[in-house]
Structures are given as C-alpha cells and as structure tokens.
Amino acid sequence: MDQMTMPALRNEIDDLAQAADRIRRANRILVMGCSGGGKSTLSLQIAARFGLAYVSIDRDVLWLPGWKQRDKAEQRAIILSKIAGERWIMDGTNPSTFDIRLPRTDFVIWVRMPRLLCIWGAVSRWVKWIGRTRPEMAPGCREKVDWEFLRFIWTFEEKFTPRVVTGLVEHGPDVPVLQLTSRRQMRRLLDLLAASV
C-alpha cells in the first residue's frame, strides 16, 4: 500500500498547544513509533508528569528473558489486563493489537522520526547500556544492536506505516493522533506539558 492508497487519518492534530491540552486531559495514551525514535523517553516523562501508569510493550508484554517472545495469546491477555486500568500510557507500536488497545485509548502520539535519527538513537542507546538491560526492557534482555535490528529500523516506515494508518482508521477513527517528526517538536511538546497546571 503506497501513500496514494493509504486511508487518511480523520482525527489528526497538528497544533502542539492543542495536543498538549488533549494530553493533559487524557487518561489513556498510546505512544508508538520506530525503535530509537524516543518514544520510551517521551512516555516516561509524560507518565511522571501526569501520574499515569507506564506500560512498555517490550518490557511488560512482548519479551521474556534472553530475547524470547511470549506466545501471541499470552501477549493479548496481558494487554487486556493492562488496558483495563483507568490511567496509563502505553509505549509500543504492535498494530496487531490495535483492535483491543485503540478503543480504550484517549490520545495517540506517533513518534515518526527520520530513520537515520532512529538508527542513531538505537546505536547511542546501545553504547549507553552495553551489557546491561535498560529499565524499559524486559529483565534478561541485554541491550543489543545487530544487522537485523538496523534493517528493521531502516525499513520500518515502508513496512509498518501502512499497517499503522489502516489500524488507526479501522480501530480508532475518533482517537486524536499527534505525529511528532522532529526532536524540536518533541521538546516543544514537553515544554508545553511542563508549563501546564
């Protein structure tokens, strides 16, 4: 599916002040995007600012120690238990679970950074956490970067964007979506949120 045949997002917000106001009032926020784009850092800052429970798809749902994936049925069961909460921010894309997550979501932040920036983010994160497991990752999953992961990042936009857009349109047509496409936008959003009462 190319850009010409991709469905349009009906409820996209491009004004950062308006988005910040919506985020302040949201009880359940989904943050998604490519690895290395900064979605976990953003999610943790918003969670701390507004007292939202932080849920990491990587840490809480997807991975078991040693980079082994949980069974799909177990993943869905965990997500169902997490989204039952009243106030949370969930960090992770996984379009295959949009059908259960989006109906419970008040606001979506799509961290859509350029792929070179995402690769830089992933590599610099690896350097920082080399040999260790970062807090937003499942225990026993030491930080790693390999060619498969870099290829995943490089092709993310091409492979996942059509699935993301289709999922948003199908399962959350009325959920407001903010796309952040630069670090400057992300910093501006955080500044606006920090200034909120």
Automatic annotation (TrEMBL):
GO terms for molecular function: kinase activity. This is Adenylate kinase. InterPro entries: Cytidylate_Kinase-2, P-loop_NTPase. Keywords: Kinase, Transferase.
